[in-house]
Every structure is written in structure tokens, then in C-alpha cells.
Input
Amino acid sequence: MEILNSEFVRVLTAVLQILASLFVFVVGAGLAGVIAIYFIDKNQTSQTIRRNYPVIGRFRYFFEHMGEFFRQYFFAGDREELPFNRAQRSWVYRAAKNVDSTVSFGSTKPIKERGSILFLNCPYPTLTEDAHEIDSVLIGPFCEKPYRPGSLFNISGMSYGALSAPAVQALSKGAKKAGCWYNTGEGGLSEHHLSGDCDIVFQIGTAKYGVRDEQGRLSNERLRDVASHDNVRMFEIKLSQGAKPGKGGILPGEKVTEEVSKIRLIPVGEDSISPNRHPEINSTSDLLDMTDRVRRVTGKPTGIKFVLGATNWLDDLCREIHKRGIESAPDFITIDSCDGGTGAAPMALIDDVGLPLKESLPYVHDLLMSQGLRERIRINCSGKLINPTDVAWALCMGADFIVSARGFMMALGCIQALQCNKNTCPTGITTHNRKLQRGLVPANKAERVAHYHDNLVHDVELISHSCGVNEPRKLRRYHARQVMDNGQSIALDRLYPYPKNEISESSH
Output
């Protein structure tokens, strides 16, 4: 027994000696590291804080980076954050998970805040048995293959490359379940977009990714190849987008993988910077020529996407359409808001260029009405429209369809980490890092995409029925009011009067 005890003491002593040596080594190495960092910081010339406060000055940059995450969870109120506050995101998360989205006790929304929208319930709301299915709308009546979309709420342009393969697969499968379309974004058509067998809108960006020849020009042959897929139902020529009007797409080189390179026909690992406009479109005539070319080559509806800034070109566009004939018009227009989202954009553009949807949507709708083109040209709109109120407002203002990108990203699990441009997205949505992608299971997230779509459309129907109409597209401006600076509200049809030639319905 004494021998065993002495052996135990000997082993324990040896272990403690090793641990002590290891502790001394770690402390020594750590101290040496701190000293090394001290001299590095003291002698570098690029950052004043680190030079004046060696070592501890580095914490400033760490806290600055972590601040956006702490604010989100600990300090910001439910309705304080930008671009989307916690109340907005929470509704999307609940809708995507298909869990109870009711709230209790009372609203936390500041209803007297300038710009708030208040819908006007009527004394005799639509009974459930009197409600209609949402009317379908035909796009491209003069096309060989016109399109009648299955939903008024659809997935906006998000490219493979900006998004990961699992994210695109989940969106494709979810769009199929929901019966809505999925816009490819300007990055071309990938097998991931096709994987879910959903309806697809192919976006033609300024770099013509996926439909370009070796010189970067639009290729009829590649257009036909894309159009040969029955899932591709429409083509959208992107002139600009809300987050960066006047600037082409930006895909950091670390996201340009071999697969992305093959789809876009660009070098691997190099930044993908699209031109800031289509080189061959320099006038209204050029724009209609390209629209007509894509429509003739593909046989499918073709429209344009832009964020509105200057407006006189739209007057020229209407005049040129009447000159050529109504069939020459774009089959649809997608209006993006200046507060739209993107994976990467210069702050000067994302903050300060372009008009918000609250100005551009009624302007474009009313212009087309006054020119007798509203029934010919369908209107899509996008830009922070992720909740039922936002979508119902857009329908009141005249939109035929609403598209959302960030709403569906949140349905995938986006936590607004603001890492989209860094290939470090913690939810696997905007990264090509396989370890980070592992958490995003397409089959599971596809269900959430469909639930989000279905629950949003359901709540839009709730609003429309409360206003006394039997389906959402019958909402008009007189069904809602907007709060002004003095805290009082004004009817939307007084704030944005309809053109004289629009037939107005009597108020309920």
C-alpha cells in the first residue's frame, strides 16, 4: 500500500511540474507576444490610436466591430435598428417557421411617426366565404410565350455567387412550393436555380453574365440557350438597382469560384465589376431596341428594372412607344427603391442617390396611366417590402407585383450580420466557405421560404378584407392614410392624386 501511495505521489508531482512548466511557457510566450505587439504598434504609422496607445488601442477596433452585434441583441429597441428593426425581422422569422405570429397587450409601433401607413377598415369587411382567390395577371400579351404568374409576391434578384449554392437551392425549392417566381439576379443561370423546378426570371445585367460572348456583348445564341429552359419565364434588363444606382454589380474576387467563373465567363478569383450601364443602350430608342431584341430572340416577356432618379427619360420612353406601337413597350417595369439592398455597394450611392419607392412608384404608375400604357406595362416594385403592411401599401399605390430579396434571405435564416460582402456570413447564405454553408440545409430552408411567402400573402389578404375588398389587388389609395409631420394623417389619394383619366371607385 505504501508503495502504491509513493507511486501516486511521484506521478502527481511529475504532472504538476509539467503543468507548471507549461504555465510558465504560456505566460512567457504571451508576455513576449504583448511586448512584440507593443513595439509594432508604437512604430507603425498607419493608425494613430495604435501608435499612441500600443496594445490597448487594438481593442477599439475589436469593440467597433462587435458593436453592431451587441446593439442588435442588447441595446437597440424593437423598432430602432436599420435597415430592418427587430420587430420587422421577428415577424419574418415567425412567418418562415410557421409559428404563431399574433401579439398581445398592444402595438409597439409608433403610429404617430411621420410616414406611418394606416389602413382604413370599413364597417362591412369581406366575409371569408366572399373572398376571391387573387386574380392572375398576364404579362407579355404580344409575346410568343406570355406569362401568367402564380403569385403577387415573388423573390427578387439574387445571384449565385453573391449567394451560396445551398441558399440558391433553398430559394428555388421554396419558390416552387410557394408558386412564386425567383429572379436569378445578374450573375447568370446556374444549376442551383433550376434545382427546384420553379418559375425563373432571368436578369440581364450590364455585364451580360450568362448571355455574353467572348467580347462581353449580348449573344443571341446564349439567349436562346437560356430561353430553352421551360422554367425561364421572363427576361429582365437591369438598368440600375436601388442600392447602387449608376454602378454595376460588385462581386469580390474571393467569391469568384471556378463554378461562378464558368457561369459568368470571367476569371477565377478576380473581382467581378460590371459596367455602370449597358454600353449599347445610350437612348430611349436603344432601350426599346434591346427590349425588342431579347423578346424576339427568346419569345418570352421582357422588361426593365431601374431605380428612379431623373424622370424626363420616362416621358421620352412613352412618346417613343406610341411612335413605334404599343407592342414595342417593355412587358413590365421593376421599380427599385433607393433603400434597396445588395451584397456590396459604395456608401456614397447606397446612402444618397436615387428616389425612395414612396415617390417613384406613384409617379411611374400615374405617368403610365396618363399615357394610356398602364394596362400594357405591368409594374413590379422592390425595396424593403418584407412585411404585410409594406406589400399592401405597394398594392394601394398601383403595383401589380412585389418582389423581395432580403425578406426571403431572412426566411433562410439571415440575422442581419452585415457580412454579405466579406464571404464570412455566419448563416451560410452569402459565403462560399463550406464550413459556414453546412448549417444551411436546403430542404429545411425551402419549407421556411414557402411558409414566409404564404403567411405574408395571407396577412395581406387580411388587410384587404378588413378594408372591404375581396382580393388584395383591388386595394386603392383611398384605402389608406399616411401620417404627416404634425402627427395627423392624410388619405393617400389626396397625397398622391390619381390622374384624371383613371376610373376611381367609390370609397367603402
